[in-house]
């Protein structure tokens, strides 16, 4: 199953296949914004930005 977000299926996807591997993330919002990140710190920033500005934040 492909969990990568797309314009047809907006959302946030984060992957970290093992504790030693860098995290990767991608986000597609229904407003049209997109972002990708690689590395634990960058993915953390992607998640924080998604939570603050996209996803359910649009409903506020």
Summarize the structure.
This protein has 60 residues and is of the alpha+beta class. The chain contains 1 helix and 3 strands, in the order E-E-E-H. Helix content is 23%, strand content 25%.
Report on the structure:
This protein is an alpha+beta fold. Helix content is 23%, strand content 25%. It contains 1 helix and 3 strands; from the N terminus they run βββα. It has a 3-stranded antiparallel β-sheet, covered by helices on one side. Strand 1 (11-15) and strand 2 form a beta hairpin. The radius of gyration is 12 Å and the shape is globular. The N and C termini lie far apart (31 Å).
What layout of secondary structure does this protein have?
Layout: E1 11-15, E2 24-28, E3 34-38, H1 40-53
Could you tell me the mean pLDDT? 91
Secondary-structure element order, N to C: EEEH
Strand tally is 3
Distance between the termini: 31 Å
* Rg (C-alpha, Å): 12 Å
User: Outline, from the CA principal axes?
Assistant: globular
Largest sheet: 3 strands, antiparallel
- Which class best fits the helix and strand makeup? alpha+beta
**Number of H/I helices:** 1
Instruction: Please give the share of residues in helix.
Output: 10-25%
User: What share of residues are in beta strands?
Assistant: 25-35%
Low-confidence stretches: none
């Amino acid at each position: 199953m492909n969990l990568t977000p797309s314009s047809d299926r907006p959302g946030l996807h984060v992957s970290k296949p093992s504790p030693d591997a860098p995290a990767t993330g991608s986000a597609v919002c229904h407003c049209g914004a997109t972002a990708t990140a690689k590395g634990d710190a960058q993915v953390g920033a992607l998640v924080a930005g998604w939570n603050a500005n996209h996803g359910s934040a649009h409903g506020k």
